[in-house]
Amino acid sequence: MPQSAEPADKNLVYRRVILKLSGESLADSSQRGISGDEVEGIARQIKQAHASGCEIIVVIGGGNILRGAAFSGANAIVHEATAHYMGMLATVINSMAMQDALEAVGCHTRIMSAVGVDTVAEPFIRRRAMRHLEKGRVVILAAGIGSPFVTTDTAAAQRALELEADVVLKATRVDGVYSEDPEKNPHAVLYQSLTYNEVMEKNLKVMDATAIALCRERSVPILVFNFKQDGNIVRAVTGQTIGTWIGPHRRS
User: Which tens digits make up the pLDDT trace of 93-110?
Assistant: First the structure.
């Protein structure tokens, strides 16, 4: 039976979100490969969030399968542009795993790819993506924007503008944006909220500068939060105060 696009909660803070997941989020503690348990756990959180009535677009990286840094340097055999395309294909693999996990827990999905892989995914067409969302499907976007030298963070920001998302949800392994890496410095300070300019001036490694600039240009907020804490994806899409909020002004 088709899912209804009618929102469950008329007072949703966010009607449509981009959920940005790193490729490593699908892996175990080694941060390599795909862990069935990790993918299932994320899928169950997304299902709960989707049940709130929020329309969800998922963008997944590919770093658990291929890291571009492995092909950098003067002696690299593979051209850097080729490595970027390989990374795009890695995101397709991750998207396929996430699609099956989501459908196993009862979410209808569509994968849309920016590079042609017609056997396993639809091409990304903006109007078609919007229609899938209206029909209550979770849309998984693969292969970035289809061009090399563009990160999946920038792809998430770009698609947020194209698909009129209310917020970019950046899922991480830590509670938000810190003054330093909290996994290296236990005394690092967690920011509750920041402006786009503060992120850039402090050179905080949240998302790449192009992604921040795109969001700043159209005042699309970014919420950086810890997806490893069960239920946090639901809390994020329903506008609860978690993580670090980045926007044109500080969160009140």
Answer: 999 999 999 999 999 999
Sign of the alpha-carbon torsion through 246, 133, 136, 36: negative
Handedness of CA 46, 51, 54, 57 (dihedral sign): positive
Give all domains of the chain, ordered by start, each with its CATH number. Answer: 16-247 (3.40.1160.10)
Instruction: Supply angle C-alpha 10, 13, 18, rounded to 5.
Output: 115
Cα-based torsion angle of the residue sequence 115, 120, 121, 123 in order, rounded to the nearest 10 degrees: 50
Full-prediction pTM beyond 0.90?
A: yes
pLDDT band at 9 (very low <50, low <70, confident <90, very high): low
Strands 244-247 and 222-226: antiparallel
Angstrom distance (rounded) from CA 162 to CA 139:
14
Burial state string for 197-217 with b = 16 or more CB within 10 A and e = fewer than 16: eebeeeebebbeeebbebbbe
Residue 186 DSSP one-character state = T
